[in-house]
Each structure stands twice: as structure tokens, then as C-alpha cells.
Specification:
Residues 7-64 form the HTH lysR-type domain. The chain is an alpha/beta fold. Helix content is 44%, strand content 17%. It has helices at 3-6, 9-21, 24-31, 35-49, 65-89, 102-119, 171-176, 197-205, 224-232, 246-251, 280-298; strands at 54-57, 60-63, 94-100, 123-129, 143-145, 155-161, 164-168, 190-191, 214-215, 238-240, 262-263, 268-273.
Amino acid sequence: MKLSRQLPLNALRVFEAVGRLGSFTRAGEELGMTQTAVSYQIKLIEDYVGEALFWRRPRQIGLTETGARLYPRVAEGFGLLTDALQQAMQTAVETLEIHSVPTFASNWLARHLGSFQLQHPNIAVRLQRVSKFREVGALDADIMIPWREKPIPGTVSQPLIQLDFTPVLSPTLAAKFDGITKPADLLKLPIISPDDPWWQEWFAAAGIPEPELVGTKLHSYEAQDLEASAAIAGYGVAIVSPFFFRDELASGRLVQPFPLALKARHPIHLAYPQSRRHAAKIKAFETWIRAALEQENTA
């Protein structure tokens, strides 16, 4: 009997979906199958392997030790098959889905993507601003650019850029308070996003360990580009990464009153699904973005 007939490919497809989604029901919805059919396919692959691949509890399942060893290879295999089919079809234009933390997306990536597309005209880019990243199985992204301590489960993740942070404000606001000559002078100003832990770290480094911050009436934005826009409008002083606002600082719309800048605890990472790490469009993007960042930092 041929290996292709022995190998339960449909059952493996179901196993990959259940392992990725952590649910028989959700896997069935994705694959257009009933839960009974999903359970049957999982039984087929378990019988084929000779061991249970999932432990089952009321309303809860998880990969067994054997299942956990098998899943990454199966996921990678289907990723390679997808890439092979796309190459065989010789698709004229591929789409690269990128999910990025908001300020990196709008204040750097969107401004530089034109050079990537000039180098790779057969790759169309879809860029989304994302604040919170979930497990890779819950995302459709090819590329993820998160700012977080731990890698996104299921991804290959490498540091992309290490940033620092420091207060910035509009020169008009600084003039209203007769200039800002020492760090304590900032405490006279409205503070944008006063709950941001960067504020406490920066003031402590400036010799003010327990500052009393006068917050603005605006809500915390969680996105540096919005905070910087509020600072440019004169609403208060923001604490941001100068890397994102070189044009605003060079033009004088923002000023950095003090040279003190602290390194962020975690770098921005470049991540992509483990199963797609050999995809040509992902490799092309990684090569391009690292070269573009290196060129900008050495300019």
C-alpha cells in the first residue's frame, strides 16, 4: 500500500486545527465539520500514532506530551505545503499581513514601506495597528511587531530595535511656564498619561523618586503617536521614544528639554508563525526591515 494512502492527511489537518485553536468546536467551525466528525478524525490519528494526543476534561482539552511533540512538526508541514502550492500557482501578487504596535506602525513602518514594495512589487502589504497580541493561532498575521517581554506563543521572535524614552513638549507650553530648566519644572505642567510607569522611572533617574504628577483631563492613550500629538497641541508633556518623532523634534514642534533618556525594559520584536518561518515573503520582509533600521540608525 502506498504511503499516501496510509498517512491520514485529513486527520492530520484536523489535529493541526484542534491543536492551534484548543477546541474541537472551534476547529469544526473553521473546517466546516461537526464536532462528531472532528472527534472521529482525532480518534483516527490517535489510533494511527498509538497514543492519545489530547487529554480531555469537561469543557477543556489540551495536548498530551506526545501531542505537544507532534504538533509543531505538523503545523510546519502544512505551512510548507501552503507555500509550495502558492509557488506552484505562481500567484502574481501575494499579500503580506503585518500587525504592529501602533506608533511603530504609523510613525516608522508606514513611512518606509514604499521602499520595501519597490524592492518586492509582487508583495502587497496590509498593515494593521494592534495594541494587544494574542496567541498566533488567533491571528491572521504573517508578521507581528509587538513590544512585550515574552514571545507570542507559536512564533519565532527576535529583537528588532531597542528604544529609549524621555519627556517632550511643545515650545509654546514651555514658554508659558517661563521655560523648563530642571526636571522638577516638569511637575508644574499637565502630564499626559500620568499612570505610565515610564514617568516614575524617568523622574527617579532624574533624582525625584516620588513625583506628584498633575495629570491632564485626557484619557491615557496607550499609543505614543497620539500622546505626542496631544503634546504638540499644548495639552501637556508626554513621555515617548524620540526615535519615532525625529521630524517633530527637528522642526521644533516638539522639544526634548533634557538629555536624560532611559532604555525601555524590552525591545520591539519581530515575530512570525513558527510554521511559516521559511515563507519567501516573510524572509524578504525581515531582510528589508533590518537593513532599513540599520541604515537609519547609522545615518
